[in-house]
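Shipment paperwork, digital attachment
Item: protein structure file
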Amino acid sequence: MKNSKLFVSFLIGVAMVLVSFQSVFAASPTVVFDQQTDGSGVVFKSSENGLDDDSITFDNFTLKANTNINEIRWVGGYLPSYVYNYGPVLDFKIAFYGTIANQPNFVTGPIKVYDFNTGIGNANEASAGNGLYNYSFVLPKPLYASANTKYWIEIVAGQATNGNWGLAKSIAGDLTRFNGVVNCPLCQTYRFLTNGDAAFSLYTSNVRKNVK
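Attachment content:
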């Protein structure tokens, strides 16, 4: 009888451990979109301070399933890639757009905008080698994205003076991105489609099929 009770207690303990592992596994982020860096050190400038020489990079993505986006990871560096010419990144603005006429929908504006400021002074960057750095941001709340729908992501660094940070070049994608450039003294913004893809990845902890 005593052995039987011990065996039951053992089984309960094993079940609790399995449930714990399952919970951890279920909460682990899963990549739903991935444009890896080519590692060359080439970057597409994407930094601003509200003055001349601001340059913003947008790139598009399409997901295969209706998805809650929970996390963004990206790779970037400085021009030239080995020098903090204008100081480190202070913060990032991350925005998501819908599509109109094969470009970000600037008419209705972004679907969602996030400000990423770690307070550390370099946006918590970690070396990725060859003058590049890894960055990541967990969204405060999941962002819903519909399947088979083209979206655009804007990742732009804030620096104290004229910026020299950019998103790393990717080996994947559709070979196009969208740029916004501010030229002064009139400080007009010019937007145009250009070649090359940016290195970023999107993650989810919960893939949904029919929820909005």
